[in-house]
Amino acid sequence: MFLQGSLFGTLTPGFDASFAECGRRQLDATTWVDVAPGWLSGSDRVFDELVERLPLRQRTGVRMYDQMVDEPRLSAWWGVEVGAPEPMPLLAEMRGVLAERYDETFDSIGFNLYRDGNDSVAWHGDRHRHVVTNPVIAIVSVGAPRPLRLRPRGGGASLSWMLGNGDLLVMGGACQHDWEHTVPKVRVTTGPRLSITFRSV
Ligand SMILES: O=C(O)CCC(=O)C(=O)O
Question: In degrees rounded to 5, what are phi and psi of residue 44?
């Protein structure tokens, strides 16, 4: 898989624990999104290392709307209960810093690889919302930028962020209840993207 390198992508990986560039956008009275562009430097190296190490596979027979489908992306998962360290020590540091800032445990990490523009995830709210009220989900994106869109559940204008190259986006408040998100298919991409998704389960 070929990743066209980004400007700061080959630096020694590290992230901004001060969140200096992180800005909050209030989507409605109870929903917010935090975005920190380029939060993780050396993101191309993180991409390469994770794609090499993770047991990425396609999930089959996943319910999407009323159909059972094979997910058009590859995924892997890590959780504290696995009893093994995170696939990269840097992920443990990220978890710690994010957990402190958002007062979450972030004890699980989902990885999603969008190999090309045909890989995607349809509009959805995280199922996790059925178990936890107002779950906070932090997404670090490495690799080539792809749009992540958000829209109010039940319709309405969507908002879009291009996420890749170490960007951080955190969904909070009622985002999983009252809004939906998607990574749509696109005709043109400059390469694959991997999302690193922190949740508290
Ligand atoms: O890949 C992303 O940025 C979003 C992932 C996502 O929405 C999910 O796995 O539920």
Answer: -65, -35
Give this prediction's pTM.
Answer: 0.95
Residue 126 three-state SS: coil
Residue 127 dihedral angles phi and psi, to the nearest 5°: -60, -25
138 Cα to the center of ligand 1, angstroms? 10
End-to-end Cα distance, the chain: 31
CB neighbours of residue 161 within 10 Å: 19
User: For residue 139, which atom of ligand 1 is closest to its CA?
Assistant: 3
User: Checking phi first, is residue 9 left (phi over 0); if not, alpha (psi -120 to 50) or beta?
Assistant: alpha
Task: For the domain covering 22-199, report its CATH number.
Answer: 2.60.120.590
- Chain centroid to Cα 105, Å, comes to 16
Residue closest via CA to ligand 1's atom 1 equals 195
Which residues, in sequence order, are bridge partners of residue 194? 113, 142
Give pLDDT tens digits for 147-179: 999 999 988 999 999 999 999 999 999 999 999
In angstroms, the CA 116 to CA 72 distance is 10
CB of 76 within 8 A of CB of 42? no
Strands 137-143 and 146-152, by their bridges, are unpaired
Listed by start position, the domains of the chain span 22-199
Q: Which of 95, 113, 102, 128 is nearest to 33 (CA)?
A: 102
